[in-house]
Amino acid sequence: MPEQTDHLEPAVHLQKAKLSYPAPDGEIEILRGLDLTIHAGEIVAVMGPSGSGKSSLIALIGGLEVATGGGVHVLGQDLTVASEAQRTHMRRRDVGIVFQSYHLVPAMTALENAALPILLSGAEDASAEASRLLKRVGLGHRLRHRPSALSGGEQQRVAIARAFAGRPRLILADEPTGNLDQSTGRDVSKIMFDLVKEDGSAMLLVTHDPALAATCTRVIEISDGVIAAAAGQK
Amino acid sequence: MTDVSQSSHSSEPSGIKPQLRILRSLLTAELAAGIGGLKLFMGCVAIATFMIVGVWILGNGLAKSLTEGGTTFLGGDLAVSVVNVPLEPTLVGDLRALGDVAVVSELRSSARMGDQRVTVEIKGVDQAYPLYGVVKLQSGRPLADALAPQGGMASVVVEPEFLRRVQGSVGDTLRLGEQDFVVTDALLLEPDRLSAGRFMVGPRLLLNQQDLQNAGLIQRGSIVDFRYRIKTPDGQPLAASLAQLKTLQADRGWEIETPEDAGDRVRRTVERTTTFLGMAGIVALAIGLAGAWAAAKAWISRRARTIALYRLSGAGPGLVCALHAVIIGFASLGGIIGGVIAAVASVLPVKKIIASQLHLAWDITVIYAPLASAWWIVVIGVTGTSVLVLGTLRNIRPGAAMRDGEVTLSTDGPSAVAGLVLVFAAMIGATLSLPIPFIAGVSVAGICLTAGLLAAVAAGLARLGASLRSKGFVSLVVHKGLTDTASVAVRAVAIGIGIAGITAITSAQTSLETALRSELPDRIPDLVLIDVQPDQTAPIRQRIESDKSLGGLQADPFMRATITAINGVPAADALIRENKSWVIEGDRSFSWSAEPTGAELLAGSWWPADYSGPSLVSPEEDLYEAFDLKPGDTITYSVLGRLFTSEVANIRKEYHRTFRPEYLMVASPIPFKDAPQSWVMSLQGDTNEAVDQLIRDLASDHGNVTSIDIRRLAAQVLQTIDGAIGASLLVALTLMIAGGLSIASVTLAEVDARHREALVFALVGASRSEIALARLVEASAIGLIAAVVGGGAGILGGYFAATEALHIAWSPGTIALILPLVLGLLAAMPAALAGGLGALPRGRGQMARHLSN
């Protein structure tokens, strides 16, 4: 379980965060001064039309992109000044990321894919922990299978097991059920929600599914790079 | 997810016309976007084309010219040669009964113009010369016109080199022996130059036979080659004329030559060089095709999503294959045309220079046939490579591609067979069109064996890797990278073939360089004097010994002998080793000496200084090897038109290429001591001035003596050696470029294949350096396999090329050991850097963009 101090310091704190990308016709502003705070134990759903900046928000908080303005503090670290090595280190120890398109290594088995973050952190019991998580997501019988032998739902569950390996304090999920049918999507979501609750971590969940969003602690809607609406604290 | 590849067929319009219309539309769109993605493919095709076309039009073109020009080089359908003394008129009359006869006399002497003296190669010709081919003069007029007397003075035509040395011009007068000649023209092409069969020590002078006699240069004992060329009547079989000619053979012996023998030494050299270059060309073809294959595969891999989209939109595998076949066809054509243009532009000037040096009639049409065969070799090879690549398209299923975002490319069975058959056909075609197919064939077999060995060892390593347990991120990634048997084998072959080829050619090149450098002894004479009359030896020796700056004097009587029998058996029948048959072909160097020559004796002993019994001979090692001679055997030979039989007293060791006269046989003094003969003297000088002064003194005091300035010849030889070394280095450099392009192609494929994996690793917190380290270890392992297997095969190949193709000693140097490892590392590093550090996108927005895809 995370320490109590997590409740005092937000897991994510964005102040007027800006992100723009270079383009042939000049800079494209994706996030135009976005404010957001997520505390440990919170599951925040992000909704919004395509191109509104949802995936860029994940990349920004995950340290994959660097803000072009404003403040970005994640797990006590100022990402606007952190080096690439520091951002990589943060991702390795404290952040788990799930994408719609799974992003698994084709040559590796489910167990090896799930064990990657633990291996990177240098822990000895990588296989045991990965095996526990895969069993937790219902893939105990598929440990030695490669992604090509798994269904979409199974691949996403491997990606979830990998994201939760090493008990990260922050989970970033970008449309994790977008490629799955409704029933599988529900199963996958439930697993994620349960794991977040077990670990007491924070989660930012990008989704187009209002029903899924409704089960989250809070819902924010992004439009044109800023928060257009925020709803409910459960 | 449902695989829609099967259902997509139903939406594709049927019938050839609609299909072609769709293909045209797709092609228009694709070509408008450009084929820049196939730049590396085009580069690999171009470099393979460059080497094959270059080698074929240079080497095969020359070899073909030499083979087809035999009659012209010989100057007749048949020819006989004797030395010192011309054939008796009755025998010449018998020759005339066989057909038209042209008589040519060749000798070395000095020509003087003003105060300049130049050593020249004189050729006296009669009215019938040339029986074949055309003498080309600067003015364009016929030779007979140029050699007609001018204002009562005899005429001579000279090579431009002579005029350059004496700073003279056409119309000037030169003195030859005791007669003045007016230079009437410059000689540009001598059709039978290659029949000279000896090293030219100076520019050629061409004059009438009678004028040569009048100059007084031909005396008893003079070293003059008399050649009688016969043009047999049309329709007369050569074999019949040859048989008839053999019945006429003079007792003193003569050398009979057929068109096949003409320019034999040059032709053998050209054939061996062509085969060596051809091996380099075949290696370049293999490397280029491997690189083209890797580059095209990388291109297909990058287009997997586009292909999947085409398939999703209803395009069948046939249409997708046709579309990519046409695009690859355009790129291939671009590469081939680029390679052909580069090859023709670089080789034609070289070919022109060589043809001019060899006095070959140069005609642009001689390159057509080799160009056409090279073109087909490349086209078939590139088509095979393309088929191998296009065979992967069928396996790109729209559903799988869209779901995973990446596909594993594997060639389907029929395409793999067809592609490999075509590639092998190209290799075999290249092999068969080389002058020595056996040597080239062994090279191709070596390449194939090397490829098989590389694949087997790499696959073995992959299996071994799969059985090992991995700990930690880096070892897991390396482990996974090496357990993909097919991928590891493919990369090892693509890199290893290049390493094998480059190592083979470079080590052969190093051996060639060592062999060429060793051609020149440490200390060679600076001056050789020929045509020294016996009564001139004492004063010349005195003059040389009086100058402290001159030394190393060696003086020998110089004659020519033709060997006719061994122990009473005709020489041709007694010959044991065919590769030494040259000892009985024509006249060979002969001398006499009371004292030992200084050469080591391999058997027997030297005769006493005052020996006066029946003549004894000391044959050289080559002669001993030709007949397995031993002391006590007898040799019958012709000297100055007379036959002698002498007992072998000892066998002398041979000292190659000392630039001093070497004698195949040295006899005891009697009876040769008092025969008409000239002497040869060689010496060294501490300063150029001393040697120059001696040449001037000899010119004024002993006008008949010809001074051959070895310093100038040595400089020419060095220049030739440097040129040959430079050319072989260029070949090695071209192979390096081919290898570099091939490695770049493999690297590109590596980057593409590893791009998505690197993204995943970055997602879970792996740093660029950790990813790069994993890739470096993985690539180094494959580089090491390629270096060890490819390098080993390359060293074996180099040994074969040096000993069998070039007939030189094997001395690869340390470079043969270091180069494979360096190349393996060079292949590993970019793959690691690009597949590791470079696989993660840089720049704002790039990570997000790639992760969202």
Can you put this structure into words, describing what you see?
The complex is a heterodimer of chains A (234) and B (853). Chain A has eight helices and ten strands. With 234 residues, chain A is an alpha/beta fold. Chain A has a single domain, classed as P-loop containing nucleotide triphosphate hydrolases (Rossmann fold). In chain A, the strands form two sheets. Chain A has a six-stranded mixed beta sheet with strand order 6-7-8-3-9-10. Chain A has a four-stranded antiparallel beta sheet with strand order 2-1-4-5, covered by helices on one side. In chain A, strand 7, helix 7 and strand 8 form a beta-alpha-beta unit. In chain A, helix 6 runs parallel beside helix 7. The two termini of chain A are 21 Å apart. Chain B is 54% helix and 16% strand. In chain B, strand 6 and strand 7 form a beta hairpin. In chain B, helix 10 packs across helix 13 and helix 17 packs across helix 23. The longest helix of chain B is centred in the C-terminal third of the chain and has 54 residues. Chain B starts with 15 loop residues before the first helix and ends with a helix. Chains A and B meet through strand 1, helix 2, helix 3, strand 6 and helix 4 of A and helix 16, helix 22 and helix 25 of B.
